[in-house]
């Protein structure tokens, strides 16, 4: 039997997304964003939702570009810090020792040490309530070669992305593979 938990912001798992932006003066900033994910395949797009009170909100409105950086498990502390500190008060890159790299495609920095990066130009802004959703067209995906499998496709077990459990505010690693999508379902017998 299922128990009602009421109206909550819960989806398991939630990816840990670190959003990179520049401020008006060109200072790089990064923010841990829990609310986000892919939202369209053509054009390839990602949606992130953030509060107006954040430093990143103003940067996104000003620069109309952002990156989505996927940290590996070895950067869990730095990823969490990006969600604790305010870029308006602190230089998060100096504090973490991570390296901002200038994108050649969009007006936003990405994090050199993180294995997966999506470079995005802002296409839509939607006021939802407490959060504003920013939709960006993915202009390029960059991945460390060490995170690729034999076929040249991203290997989840080599990428080691961080997952977030919103209800208990905890980070997790990825578990074991269960099977190939659009394949294991073929084993279901139709009667």
TrEMBL record:
Residues covered by the Flavin reductase like domain: 9-155
Entries under InterPro entries matching the protein: Flavin_Rdtase-like_dom (IPR002563), Flavoredoxin (IPR052174), Split_barrel_FMN-bd (IPR012349)
Taxonomic superkingdom: Bacteria
Record-level Gene Ontology MF annotations: FMN binding; oxidoreductase activity, acting on the CH-NH group of donors, NAD or NADP as acceptor
Keyword Flavoprotein: yes
Record's keyword annotation contains Nucleus: no
UniProt-listed SMART domains: Flavin_Reduct
UniProt record similarity statement: Belongs to the flavoredoxin family.
Protein name according to UniProt: Flavoredoxin
Species per Swiss-Prot/TrEMBL record: Candidatus Brocadia fulgida
Highest classification ranks of the organism: Bacteria, Pseudomonadati, Planctomycetota, Candidatus Brocadiia, Candidatus Brocadiales
